[in-house]
Amino acid sequence: MFIKKGAMFGLDARIALAIFGALSVISGAALYSAIDDSKKTAFMVQLEEFSKAYTAYYLDVGHHVPVYEANKDFLVGNRIVENIDSDTNWNGPYWPEGYGKNRNNKDGLGRVSFRGDYSAGFVQAIDTDWGDYAGSSFIGDCIISNCHIWAYVEVRDKNINFAKDINNRIEKDDSASSGKVRVRYFGDNSYNIYYYVQPK
Fold first, then answer.
1. Which is more confidently placed, 16 or 30?
2. What was the pLDDT predicted at 151?
């Protein structure tokens, strides 16, 4: 009699452990999903704030940040962090992260820190289709009648699905080449996410 009860107890314990293990896996996956979701939401909010930093700079000083002479697609965006040009109406810094640990004001492109680990800046480009998830399509050169400011973030350590998720959350579609969000993929988990700021 005692042997049967002991065997039943062992079976009950194994069933309980199996249930506990299954619940741990389910709750762990749910927790990971919630953390991943909050990171993407924070990224999107900060992308919007970064674009507002440019607009605030523009409204205060009355002109756009300078064009990077070596590549006219890029704008020298560090003006939102530091009053390099001694503009009298500059009221910044407009971007609280500053240069971050990997940047300084000697960076010719004027990139600044974004969420601590990424670099961000501004480009000027046309507002027609450009960008893709598979290659490194070129952004269209500005022309007088079609020139717009775009904020960009260099992402170097996340799978391309991260960019697709950001795009889908903002645009509600899968297109990397149209709308307010664009993506240019360079391979090996390296891409830029672009966010529309304003016309130039």
1. 16
2. 93
- Write down the mean pLDDT value for the chain: 80
Q: Pick the range with the lowest mean pLDDT from 41-50, 57-66, 70-79, 126-135.
A: 126-135
Tokens found for residue 37:
């979701």
* Close Cβ partners of 178 (under 8 Å, ≥ 6 residues apart): 129
Question: What are the residue ranges of helices labelled H in 62-181?
Answer: 160-171
The tokens for 101 are: 């640990």
Residues 42, 44, 45, 47, CA torsion sign: positive
User: Which residues partner with 41 through β-bridges?
Assistant: none
Residue 105 has pLDDT above 70, yes or no: no
Three-class secondary structure of residue 88 per DSSP = coil
Residue 56 pLDDT:
96
**Preceding peptide of 93 cis, ω within 30°:** yes
Strand 190-199 to 181-187 pairing? antiparallel
User: From CA 89, how far away is CA 62, in angstroms rounded?
Assistant: 8
Q: Quote the Cα angle for 47-53-57, to 5°.
A: 155
Tell me if 118 sits within 8 A of 153, measured CB to CB.
yes
Is 134 within 8 Å of 186 (Cβ atoms)?
Answer: no
Rounded to whole angstroms, how far apart are CA atoms 2 and 8?
10
> Model pTM greater than 0.90?
no
Q: Does residue 151 contact residue 50 with C-beta atoms inside 8 Å?
A: yes
